Amino acid sequence: MYISLFPKGNGINTTVLLLVFLGSNTALFSQTIPERLDSFFTGLNINGDINGSVLVIEKGNILYLKSFGYANVQNKIANTENTLFQLASVSKTFTSLAVLQLVEKKKLTLNDKFIQYLQGFPYPEITIRQLLSHTSGLPDYYELFDPYMSSSPDSIFTIHNIIPALKQRKLSLHFQSGEKWEYCNLNFNLLALLVEKTSGLSFQKYLKKNIFLPAGMKSTFVKTDTTVLNIIPNVAYNYDYPFLFSPTKVRVDSFAIPQFKSEYKTFALVGDGNVYTTTIDLMKFDQALYDGTLINKTVFELAITPAKLNNGSNATIMNVSQMGKAFYGFGWFIFEDSSMGKIVWHGGGMPGCRTIFMRNIDKHQLVIVLANAITDGLYKNALCAMYILNKRHAIPSLKPVAKYYGKLLFQYGDDHAVTKLIEMLSDTLHYKTDENEFNDLGYAFFDKHYTALSLTTFRTAILLFSSSDNLFNSYGEILAKVGKKEEAIMMYRKSLLLNPKNEDSKKAIEQLYRQ
To answer: How many of the other CB atoms lie within 10 Å of CB of 184?
Structure first.
């Protein structure tokens, strides 16, 4: 049903309301850029949507520097501009730079086969260029190490375990190298190995000697399996929800929760992540990239130029936030839309942290957001800061309805959750509804043995998305698992009515009839 913003006969003067709206909008743009940035991020903080540090710079001038929340919740230690955050995949920008430094020194070339430097690598056609651009086709490290983690869950995996594991597992490439783009952390783990082999230094020592110290990044370090965070001052501990519908966050390095263990204990891999730094040190890194301290500008330009596939097309990522299409270079994403200038960035994420390092090359603008607690929409909110810098409207990220519905259902039950669900569905300015998120929530409840809540979630989901064959399929699967075969068959049939090509639903019905 369509509901007018200004229903007839309510006595409201719509002209006056419109003028009020325009007036408030004008007032917003009458603020200075720092004031607008503060209004934006303070609003996020009030809503619980940021826990970390923010730095915004234009032409070397700090326009906004502020921290929110705690680095250590238990001890009430606040985040500051000197807090060290886990960068996760933003670390790839350093790995890329290290490789390009070696290219500049003529220690290697981009078209060299990786096997020239690491003998025994079982994919002889993969080049350094393909590793840098995520076009190698390699499986990621989870796929590689899962069997070892299952048989020996306390083992520590480093980059030196990768090639032996690849030789033993004999995994197929996901596609012929150079044919497609697919994000793969293993590419950058292998590049860290390449840096060690070519330089004769450990990866962490190479970065310290050739990047961190020349750039003045005195606080930055690479976490390895021997690094103990609790003896390093100013470190932000990461906090995340232990499961999708959890009402509270926990410190993820407790290892008590299996899905966090691999990220913080079992995996001590470098190259793809595990750099710790501060907003101030990242500012110095940004400056050093401009002034040529670290690398010749012409060579670095390769990193922020779209990589090419075998057919000559750009390595492309579709529909990135509100900026649309993006490309990938060597360790950097590049927006196709250059209406605000050439914007390049890398984001990072792992249990308990989200980070983004975004540079407007043409205007010397920089947005850094480092967060040590999971919140919604960090990447889009960082982009909003870039919008504010360029005097555009900033629209905060919408909250996921499914996530909040799940928490309410878990804590307070069906009646309360449905009441709040109705409110959230009508509040499209602040909430978004996504069928895949409801699907994930239903499975999350079932995996944690909350079967009744799983069934409730899927019932709600098929009412919200009555044309989704996948949701009916998922609901049928859960019904079948709890022994409600007739009801399951009905859901699978509905799935096939919506999509006759749903092979999973066809097979499920056949199997249920055989039983």
So the answer is: 21
- d(CA 67, CA 205) in angstroms, rounded, equals 30
Asked if residues 106 and 271 have their Cβ atoms less than 8 Å apart, the reply is no
Per-residue pLDDT averaged across 243-247, rounded? 88
CA torsion sign, 33 to 38 to 43 to 49?
positive
User: 447 near 440, Cβ under 8 Å?
Assistant: no
* pLDDT band, very low/low/confident/very high, at 400 (cuts 50, 70, 90): very high
Residues marked as catalytic: 89
Tokens of 504: 């999973």
Mean pLDDT of 359-364: 97
At 94 the three-state DSSP class reads helix
Q: Phi first, then psi: what are they for 479, rounded to 5°?
A: -60, -40
Q: Which amino acid is at 216?
A: G
- One-character DSSP codes across 369-424: EEESB--TTHHHHHHHHHHHHTT----PPPEEHHHHHHHHHHHH-HHHHHHHHHHH
pLDDT at 227: 63
DSSP reduced 3-state for 345: strand
Separation of alpha carbons 262 and 351, rounded Å: 10
The rounded distance, in Å, linking the Cα atoms of 194 and 271 is 10
439, exposed or middle or buried, with CB in 10 Å at 0-12, 13-18, 19+?
buried
The beta-carbon contacts of 111-120 under 8 Å, at least 24 apart in sequence, are 114/190, 114/194, 117/194, 117/197, 117/198, 118/163, 118/190, 118/193, 118/194, 118/197, 120/163, 120/167
